[in-house]
Amino acid sequence: MMARARLEPVPVLAEEPKGARTAMVGLAGALCGMMSIRCSSASAGQLASLMLGGDAAENPSMIADALGELCNMVAGNFKAKISNLADHCMLSVPTVISGEDYSLQTSSPAEIFQIPLTYLGELLWVSLTVHE
Amino acid sequence: MKKLKVLIVDDSSVMRKIVERSLRQAGLDLGEVLEASNGAEGLVEVQKGAWDLILSDINMPAMDGLEFLKNLSGLECAKGVPVVMITTEGSEARVVEALSAGARGYIRKPFTPEQVKERVAPLLGGVL
Prior knowledge:
By secondary structure, chain A is of the alpha+beta class. Chain A contains two helices and seven strands; from the N terminus they run E-E-E-H-H-E-E-E-E. Chain A has one domain (18-131): 3-Layer(aba) Sandwich (Chemotaxis protein chec). In chain A, strands 1, 2, 3, 4, 5, 6 and 7 form a seven-stranded antiparallel β-sheet that branches. The termini of chain A are far apart. The relative contact order of chain A is 0.27. By secondary structure, chain B is of the alpha/beta class. Chain B has helices at residues 13-25, 39-46, 65-72, 92-100, 113-120, and strands at residues 4-9, 30-36, 53-56, 83-87, 105-108. A five-stranded parallel β-sheet of chain B has the order 2-1-3-4-5, sandwiched between helices. In chain B, 36% of the residues lie in helices and 20% in strands. In chain B, helix 4 links the parallel strand 4 (83-87) and strand 5. Chain B has one domain: Response regulator (Rossmann fold, 3-Layer(aba) Sandwich). At the A-B interface, helix 1 and helix 2 of A face helix 1 and helix 4 of B.
């Protein structure tokens, strides 16, 4: 809505999320986990440009901030739509990672829900990690 | 027509720009637009002059939006200035708390310029 971009869902993919930009927002309280958005640098730049105007795509700081804010909004709206979560689950401030060579490990068993989407022909993953 | 003086309080520089853009797209004739990255900075800016509108996030470091609202109520220079909260916060309790603390409206992210206009226009005395 804020980027006025339409992302299309794709069938479940066997591949793991990839891309050089990852935004994460932590959830704590009635639900503990993390919401993340991962995409390519090009996609992140395009989204930032749509949200902020033309030259945002050239500014790494603005790209990171835009992607973090998108993740914040996805997490916030998810929380608002789940009964009992809105009042009993807090969100962290967004964190954005630049780069592809990393792996995430959780300290406790967790379920991961991944939604692959396409935007301008590229894949973007929205993932929800829920700790038991 | 008088240009509006607006203060935008949000810890995200991206969101501050989006809010300003949305206000302009909603048809507001903006004069001075100042920004603050948390409630404490917002209180400093508020005391610098006469404001027509303040928009504030809730979840911010240093001083959150609710604390900012509560402190605003004690400032003579902020009396009568409409404050609208713009936030992802979905808690009904927080909404009620913000309205009880003096917020005149509440916009949930994501939002469109049209939604901003709907919330803000009635507070500006027919400027739009």
